[in-house]
Amino acid sequence: MKRREWIKSAAIASGALALPANMRAKPNYAPLGTASPSDSTHGYINLSINENQWGPSPKAREAMAKAVSYAHEYPAVPLRKLREEIAEREGVEPSQVLVGAGSSDLLKAASYVYGLAGGSILSSDPTFGDLLRWAEPHGTEVIRIPWNDAHSPDLPALTKALRSDTGLVYVCNPENPAGTVLDAKTLQAFCEQTSAKCPVFVDEAYIDFAAEADSLTMMGLVRDGLPIIVSRTFSKAHGLGGMRAGYAVTTPEIAETLKEAYVHGVVCGASHVSIEGARAAYADTKWLEHVRSETAKVRASFAAFLDSIGQPYIPSRTTFMLMPVKGDSEALASTLFSATKVRISPRFIQGQNYLRISLGSPEQMAVLQTGLKLVLGAT
User: Fold this and answer.
1) 200-203 and 166-172 beta bridge pairing
2) Beta-strand relationship, 166-172 and 120-125
3) pLDDT of 181-197, one tens digit each?
4) pLDDT at site 43
5) Phi/psi of residue 262, nearest 5 degrees
6) How far apart are CA 354 and CA 326, in angstroms?
């Protein structure tokens, strides 16, 4: 079927995808997602960029509302408190904790520190691309090593590709865009071996969705004094994507070096309001467990749906799923959006078309699934 005919069929079907009024009702706080585009600044259901549809905890919302009263103050005090709170939980010194505007600040800092010096940066391919994207304009050679058969970073291949001029190795665990997770002991051994030659940056943005973080994190290697950088963000499981707050934990020496490459101190890239929200979210472990639990339910339900229609997918432990498709992924995503106003992310990876879908609320997923039946049935 031609793309124009797909869209025509999708438009006819769109009337069946209209949402009943009870799905558009707003609870008093922290909705478990919403199926109504009117509740989003996007103007549509956005399942393309891994936004947390459960939102921040009520305690974080309350803390941010109170912090508005201090918007005239630079965030020196809340910044100090957040660093101390993270340091206490992770068993490091506050000087080893860097706070930025999401983890993006810290990824960019690492691209400067380890990219401007020349040489190479080594990474899995594909992966979350910000650090690599920022490094290449500096003239840095980025060495990309394809996934293994499990759609995870190929650690033995990365080890073989390590060169004398490699300044940094970047590993995203859980991996994005596949949602796979490396075995903790295997990754630990890789980091121990590799960090003897150059620092290793471990991006743990989605770790809270995969399991209790302590069972997977590489923070222990930082406590052991190895040249490891572990980054986290409040954008994902904590639901603060719009507030821009994240952090990294590393050795005192690397921390001092990275501080020179991004906004820090009194004029931290994160705001007074966002830092207070992050502090409250960090302390609210019950809400974090609630988000993890609800996401796992949606993930299992969506996997069962894909099984029921015979659609293959890569088993995920995060808040998104990647599935190979037969048709052109750009055309499929466009047709789906035309029919449902649900946006998903088309990908083309190593010769294969994929769709990466962020997990939303049950109501949002119901709309998505109706659209997928239409679109995938046309391939």
Assistant:
1) parallel
2) parallel
3) 999 999 999 999 999 99
4) 86
5) -150, 165
6) 8
